[in-house]
Structure formats: structure tokens, C-alpha cells
Design a protein that fits this description.
The structure holds two protein chains of two kinds. Chain A has helices at about 20-25, 70-75, 110-120, 140-145, 165-175, 190-200, 235-240, 250-255, 260-275; strands at about 1-10, 15-20, 35, 45-55, 60-65, 80, 85-90, 100-105, 125-135, 150-155, 185, 205-210, 225-230, 230-235, 240-245. By secondary structure, chain A is an alpha/beta fold. Residues about 505-513 of chain B have low confidence and may be disordered. By secondary structure, chain B is an alpha/beta fold. The chains are: A alpha/beta, B alpha/beta. Chains A and B meet through helix 1, helix 2, strand 7, strand 13 and helix 8 of A and strand 5 and helix 16 of B.
Chain lengths: ~280, ~525
């Protein structure tokens, strides 16, 4: 059992959860993830670690509400407990001196890139942060990210911020303007990571993505999370989650992520019917 | 397959002493051997195939007292019991069987517990027919040995039904701390042994329920989870601490635990890395590893979806690739989840199947199809990227390979298409890499297995032992428990010899993080 210290809706459909987990907090590194179960009947959900506090002994994640288990998670209150909170899982992101690193994030990925940006900044890299939101009211953690960025851009479809194009186009515009970028790191929904990878390909800029296939155990035991990278099958939970975006078989990942589409709807309807009767 | 080991002098002595007891002599005289040989083997009562293949309740009902006594009478109480030779944990089999014959079930199960801390589990999942029952002396004469496994199950079920689980005497506390990594059959065994020896034992388990393969792998219809639960509770009564949701290697490394004051370690992290065939289309939607399929169903209770959130495909035409126990568990699970076709696709023939004979037999009764001498070579997708068929190749048996089994050889031009909507790949597992990857001083073999001295189960690091699938690849529950017993005995010796030298954690490790 792990105690919830905080659960807060950051923006519509995106929540923050802070969990008491002193051992995990000691070991967490940028790019790793945890697995959480909202209750005994829930799924084991992988969430990227967005922050940790070694002294307080807490780990923070940001998640988007999608299926039944994330709906349940969006309703847990501080001081309550979840049965499973395990980690830190996966290999940490490679933190070294690259020069200039552009971090592109969307939805939950806005939080996920934060610890990576912070660590890269500490290593002496120049940080360009590029976030993508549908509208201005969906942006969160702006101040935190600005604090670790040398340049800061937001692509917002409502033109509220500097640019309104979808993130890959903005990304290409930044590259074309002549900024020498040594590495791109993209985290968010699969489509965002795919399009960012496509955008950087013509320029030959190495692009790291944090893959988000369906997982069960998260320790290499089940193989649910297998992805094809450079023609070889990898397990995202133990070989990743970070991979070279130019080498990922995206079509396969899209298809595997949709494996349980109908079941997810059925599950959600079942849960809503039982918990919110008309 | 029975690993015939030389019996230890102590075991020989125990057996001899038991054999020479007065009551045993009397009992042997009460029914002459000739009469005993005439008693036929008592059949295990089972539920009807057409009833049981639709639910997850246990297939075998268990012997009643009458059947158990009759079966126990078949045992000749040999002076040189072959059965014990075939048992990886060296149970005093004649004594426990003869105690059943005289109706003293409580003493019988205690006799088993002296060397086997998980009798209710072993009575159900051990491949007895290639171990104790294979080397039973009357098997040679009658063709069918005493059903030792069924008797073992009978007395342990009797014990738990009575709620009178015996807590053996625990040795005075030694002040030594033992870390057991992985709560599978090997880890649970080591934990039990070490706790009885007075050490403070903590089990670290990555998943949220302890039991390892016994909880995520073996289905409810073969091993009810309530049985595992009571075995785990038994360990807690011995003072063992369970730390679930703790991944050694990531949540803390072995080195970290050493710095936390643990004096000895047992690595029993199992074969948690599924093998695939690396053929085209293997990552299509609808193709599972057996580990994933069984974990979804057993651990995450997907058979109760949508009451539980984790889904699983309900394939109508299911092919399970492989011929072992895991393959049989998968195919029988698919049948129970409504598959019209639930088929084993195995590249060799029936006689080479590594699965327990009973499971194959049960599967046949339940309507499982067997496609022998067949192997898939590629999977074919529908327009949504889901598997809709597989191309197979017929095989024939050639010369024996290193395992002694005849090698399957493809028959040229024998390709054919089999329509399926779900596939489970059950061709074996490799050792889980998390501990080897995060423990640099640990010697690892070319298959990723932790290397040990097979006489002591000691690894290349002092005070660190290993056993079960992490050293063997995919093997059996009882072999893991056999390793565990050796490891526990050696670990106890190590800790006793270590005197009272307290290790002071270094300043550097204290300041970590």
C-alpha cells in the first residue's frame, strides 16, 4: 500500500498525483516510470515519473484520464492509499552534454520532460522547450519549465502563444531558423512522438522518444510492451522506454496500442453504470 | 527426467530408522506384499470434462479418506525405497504414506513438512510421474506406481481443512538478516527454512501478490489461489516479512540491501523473460507470450472482466505454440474463456511433450486439439493489424539432439494455412535480467542464467545464493524447491560460521542519495 499525498487536477483531463514512496524517491532518475494500481481490481498503469522529493520521500506523476483505471485514479483523494506503486522502472534517459537539446512535450509529456530538462540543464546543455496544447487553458507547469529553459515555445491551436501550428511544424521552423540543435527529446502521445520524429529525420537530428505501449508487469516478464526498433523486438519496460524515434516501427505501435479499444469502452461503461447510476 | 541423486547418509539413516520401527513392521505383516500388489491404483476423482472446461474451479476433487487409505495400502514399504531417490527434496515418502495407512494424517503431513514447506502445492503441480512415482519399486512390477502426489495432496488438504497447520519449532533468534529476492517456489522455500533456523527473513517481491509462477502462471483450475495464500500465511506465522511491490535491482540494488544490514541473500527471480520465435508477424495484435496471457488471466483476473479492469482477448480459434506445462495451462485457459478451437501446435510428437501426462490427458478430455509435428513460420494480419491466420510447416523427427529427444526436421513444401484469431507463444522463458544487470559482480552464463556451484548454490558473490529458474531457465516448481533447500542449508552454515562479526556500513554508502 502506498499513501497518496496529493491528487490535483492540473487542467481538464490531466491530473497530478504525489505518492509517499521513500525508496522509489531515492532511486528515481529522469525518464523512468512507475506502475500504479488505483484499487485491487484496477489495471497496472505505467506512469512516467515527473518529479521526486528525496527528503519528503515522495514521487510525482502526471497522467491523462483515458480508461477505467485512470478515471479511478483521478478520483483518489489525499491521505487515501493505492495497493500498488512500484518502481522506478525502465532505464533512465541518457543525461550528458549534447550542446543544445530541444525537448518537445504534449499532454502528460509536458510533465514528463521536466526532470529531463532539469538534469540536462544541470549538465550544461542549452535547453529549448517546445510544448504543444490544443488551447491555452490546457497548459500547465509553464513556470517550472521556463525556469529550466533557455528558449521557451508553446504551440497552441488557439494562437494564444507564439505559434499555432501543430508541434512538428513549429519544431521544423525552429530548426530552419538556424538554431543548431544536437538532440531532440519528444514525450507525449504516440502521434506527437511519431510526428516529431518524422520532422527531425530530414535534418538528421537524433530524436529520442519515450514509448508508451500497453504494459502489464513492467519488469520484462510478460512481453506485452514489445516494440520493433531497427527491425528488432524490444521490451519497452526493460530495454526502454527511451528509443531512437527514427528507428521505431510506429505503425506497429499504433496498432498494438489500440489492441483493447472496444474492451476499454466496455469497461468504462460498466464502471460508470455501477458508480454513477442515473 | 528424474534426477537420481545419491542419498545423503543422514537421509539413509532416517529411512532405515523409520523402516525398523515396530509399528511399521506390524503394518507390513498385517497385509502381505502379495495382497498389496493386487490392489489396483485408486483413480483421482475429477469433475466432468464438459462441466469443468467452462469455469476456473479445480479439476481434481481430491481423494477421500477411503481412497487414500486404499492407495496407501498399495505401498510395499520397501527397505530400499526407490521413490525417495526420485524426489528432489528427499521427502521420507514411506513414512508419510504408512502414516496415512494407519489414519494419522496430522503426523503424516508433518513428516512431509520436515523437508517440503509447500506440500499442498507440490501434491498438485509436481511431475510425479517422472520423479517419485517413476522410481517407485512397484511401478516396475505393476506398471503403475503408488500415486504419491495424490496422497501428498490428500494429507495437506486435510491439514488446511482442519485449520490445524503445524508451526514447527523455531530456533532462537540468531540476529542475522536474510533477504530473499522473489516470492516464487524457490524463494518461499528458502524463507521457510531460514526462518525456522532463527534468522530474520524478508522476501522482496516485484509483483503485488506473492507466489511468483504459482500466482501469475499456474491457473486456478490446477492450483487454487487460496492454497497458495495459506502457504504464504504459514510463512508469515514463522516470522517471515513480505515486501511486495519491491523490485530488487531498481527499488534498491543488492548492494543497497547489503548496506542496510542484510547478511545473506537468495536470488530466486525466476525465468521472467518470455522467448519468442522471431518469425514474421509475431508482434501482431492477438499474439501473446504465455506469460502475458496467463498473467492477465491469473494475476489480474481478466476472466472476471469487466468487474476487473484488465482485459484479455477471448479468441474463438486459438493456437498455443509449445508442448510444456505452460502451453497446456494456456490452451486449457483459452478453452475456458470460450474458444471453439483451442489447439496445441507442437513441433515434435506426443511422446516428446514435456508437459505432465495428467495435464495432457485432462486437456484431451476437455476438448483440446493437438497438432503435432507442426510449427508456425509466419503470422498473417487482417486489415486492422490483428492476427487472422498463421502459415505452418509440417515436421518429421530426425536424429536425437542434445536433449536426447529426436530433432524435428521441416518437411519441404508442406506449408499450409491455419485460421486463428489468437495465438499464445509458449516456447519457454529465459532468466529475468534485472538482477544480473544491476549486480556487476555476479557471474552470469551465456543464457543470462546466474552461475552457481551446484553443490552449494553459491554464486560468485560471498553470502549470495541462487536457485530455481534464474539458474536453470524454464524448469519446474519442485526442482526450484530442491535448489532452495540446498541453498538454505548452505546459507545457514555460512551464517553460523560467520560468527557475530557485525558489518558496519561504509560512510559512502550511508550518504547515497
Amino acid at each position: 500500500m502506498a499513501k497518496i499525498l496529493q491528487r490535483e487536477r492540473l487542467v481538464p483531463n490531466i491530473h497530478l498525483i504525489e505518492v509517499h514512496a521513500p525508496e522509489i524517491a531515492q532511486k528515481s532518475k529522469p525518464g523512468q516510470f512507475v506502475i500504479i494500481m488505483p484499487d485491487e481490481k484496477g489495471e497496472r498503469i505505467p506512469l512516467t515519473i515527473a518529479d521526486w522529493d528525496k527528503e519528503k520521500g515522495s514521487v510525482t506523476s502526471v497522467f491523462m484520464v483515458v480508461g477505467t483505471s485512470t478515471h479511478k485514479l483521478s478520483l483518489v483523494e489525499a491521505e487515501s492509499e493505492v495497493p500498488v506503486f512500484v518502481g522506478p522502472l525502465g532505464k533512465p534517459s541518457e543525461i550528458k552534454k549534447y550542446g543544445t537539446v530541444l525537448l518537445a512535450g504534449g499532454c502528460f509529456g509536458i510533465a514528463a520532460i521536466y526532470p529531463i530538462a532539469r538534469a540536462l540543464k544541470e549538465k550544461g546543455n542549452k535547453i529549448i522547450t517546445l510544448l504543444d496544447v490544443k488551447a491555452n487553458y490546457l497548459l500547465y507547469w509553464e513556470e517550472r519549465l521556463r525556469a529550466v529553459s533557455d528558449q521557451f515555445f508553446v504551440s497552441s491551436r488557439d494562437s494564444y502563444y507564439n505559434c499555432k501550428d501543430y508541434i512538428p511544424k513549429t519544431l521544423q521552423n525552429i530548426i530552419k531558423k538556424g538554431s543548431k540543435i544536437n538532440r531532440v527529446i519528444s514525450i507525449g502521445c504516440t502521434y506527437l512522438m511519431y510526428t516529431c520524429s518524422e520532422a527531425t529525420k530530414p535534418y538528421g537530428i537524433e530524436t529520442s522518444v519515450s514509448l508508451n505501449p500497453i504494459m502489464v508487469d513492467g519488469t520484462g516478464m510478460c512481453g506485452a510492451c514489445r516494440v520493433t526498433v531497427d527491425g528488432r523486438t524490444k521490451f519497452a519496460c526493460v530495454d526502454g522506454p527511451d528509443f531512437n524515434g527514427h528507428l521505431v516501427d510506429w505503425e506497429e505501435l499504433f496498432s498494438r496500442r489500440k489492441s483493447y479499444f472496444d474492451d476499454e469502452i466496455q469497461s468504462l461503461c460498466h464502471w460508470e453504470k455501477n458508480n454513477f447510476p442515473r | 527426467m528424474a534426477e537420481k541423486k545419491e542419498m545423503s547418509p543422514e537421509l539413509k539413516e532416517t529411512l532405515r530408522a523409520g523402516f525398523n520401527k515396530e509399528w511399521r513392521k506390524e503394518l507390513r505383516k498385517s497385509i502381505p506384499a502379495k495382497e498389496r500388489m493386487k490392489i489396483s491404483s485408486q483413480k483421482m476423482p475429477e469433475r466432468e470434462p464438459e462441466e469443468r472446461n467452462k469455469d476456473f474451479n479445480e479439476v481434481n476433487i481430491g481423494l477421500d479418506a477411503k481412497l487414500a487409505k486404499k492407495e496407501a495400502q498399495r505401498c510395499l514399504d520397501c527397505a530400499n525405497p526407490g521413490c525417495v531417490m526420485g524426489c528432489p527434496v528427499g521427502i521420507d515418502i514411506p513414512t508419510f504414506i504408512k502414516l496415512i495407512e494407519i489414519g494419522d494424517y496430522v503426523q503424516s503431513v508433518r513428516k512431509i513438512r520436515e523437508t517440503n514447506s509447500l506440500p499442498a502445492i507440490c501434491g498438485r503441480v509436481c511431475p510425479q510421474e517422472v520423479q517419485c512415482e517413476e522410481t517407485c519399486n512397484i511401478k516396475k512390477a505393476k506398471g503403475e506406481g503408488v500415486k504419491i502426489g495424490n496422497l501428498e495432496r490428500f494429507v495437506s488438504d486435510y491439514e488446511s481443512l482442519k485449520g490445524d497447520v503445524y508451526i514447527p519449532q523455531i530456533q532462537p533468534a540468531t540476529g542475522k538478516k536474510v533477504a530473499v529476492i522473489g516470492a516464487g517456489p524457490a524463494g518461499l522455500t528458502v524463507a521457510g527454512e531460514m526462518a525456522r533456523n532463527g534468522h530474520k527473513v524478508t522476501i522482496f517481491e516485484a509483483l503485488h501478490i506473492s507466489g511468483g509462477v504459482l500466482v501469475y502462471g499456474i491457473p486456478e483450475f490446477r492450483l487454487p489461489k487460496s492454497i497458495l495464500k495459506s502457504e504464504v500465511e504459514y510463512l508469515e506465522k514463522l516470522g517471515v516479512e513480505l515486501r511486495e511491490n519491491f523490485v530488487v535491482g531498481l527499488t534498491a540494488t543488492l548492494e543497497d540491501l547489503k548496506n542496510d544490514g542484510y547478511d545473506a541473500f537468495f536470488i530466486g527471480t525466476g525465468a521472467g523473460l518470455p522467448n519468442f520465435m522471431r518469425i514474421p508477424g509475431e508482434n501482431l495484435v492477438g499474439i501473446y507470450s504465455a506469460n502475458e496471457y496467463l498473467t492477465r488471466v491469473n494475476l489480474m483476473k481478466a476472466y472476471e472482466f469487466p468487474d476487473y479492469d484488465t482485459p484479455v482477448f477471448l479468441g474463438k480459434r486459438v493456437a498455443v505454440i509449445g508442448g510444456g506445462n505452460v502451453a497446456m495451462d494456456s490452451v486449457r485457459t483459452a478453452k475456458r474463456l470460450g474458444a471453439e478451437l483451442a489447439a496445441i501446435v507442437y513441433r515434435r510428437s506426443r511422446v516428446e511433450m514435456p508437459a505432465r501426462v495428467e495435464e495432457v490427458h485432462h486437456g484431451e478430455e476437455e476438448g483440446i486439439e493437438f497438432h503435432f509435428l507442426t510449427t508456425p513460420i509466419r503470422y498473417i494480419a487482417d486489415e486492422k493489424g490483428r492476427v487472422k491466420a498463421m502459415e505452418c510447416l509440417r515436421m518429421k523427427l530426425g536424429e536425437p539432439d542434445s536433449s536426447g529427444r529426436r530433432r524435428p526436421v521441416p518437411i519441404e513444401g508442406s506449408e499450409f494455412i491455419m485460421e486463428v484469431d489468437m495465438v499464445v507463444v509458449a516456447i519457454g522463458q529465459s532468466p529475468n535480467p534485472l538482477i544480473p544487470q544491476t549486480t556487476p559482480q555476479l557471474n552470469v552464463g551465456k543464457w543470462g542464467n546466474v552461475e552457481v556451484d551446484w553443490d552449494t548454490m553459491a554464486t560468485s558473490i560471498e553470502g549470495v545464493y541462487a536457485g530455481g529458474d534464474i539458474i536453470r531457465g524454464g524448469a519446474t516448481v519442485i526442482l526450484a524447491m530442491g535448489d532452495a533447500r540446498i541453498a538454505a542449508a548452505e546459507m545457514h552454515k555460512y551464517l553460523s560460521e560467520k560468527k557475530k562479526k557485525r558489518k558496519v556500513p561504509s560512510a559512502e554508502s550511508k550518504n547515497k542519495g
